[in-house]
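Hi all, long-time lurker, first post. I run a small reading group and we've been trying to get comfortable going from sequence to structure in the token notation. Rather than ask abstract questions, I figured I'd post a concrete chain and ask someone more experienced to write out its structure so we can walk through it together at our next meeting. Sequence below, copied exactly:
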Amino acid sequence: MEMLYNSDNYAVVHFELAGEHVPARPALQGLTRGGYEIVDKASKREIYLDGAMAEHFKRGVEDLIESEPSEEDIDSFLSGYAVLAQQPVVLH
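-- Answer (accepted) --
Happy to help. Here is the structure in token form:
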């Protein structure tokens, strides 16, 4: 578990599992096992992204980082995922 981002509005944590847990299905080849938890602090909700959705998120973050974004830019990007958050934050 690694904290990737923490602002007044959002927190992003990366979870990575060991390689032996990766499913041996051809459709998932190249994907890592694990994912990203995005916490929307204002709504006290979170979402966990894994599989293809996590890879899509990772590519979006990589593209965003290339533009040397401000905190507002990053929070704006995260808000697009946070609208999907349904799980209430119980402990954090």
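A couple of things your group might point at:
Residues 51-66 form the longest helix (16 residues).
The helical segments are 51-66, 71-82.
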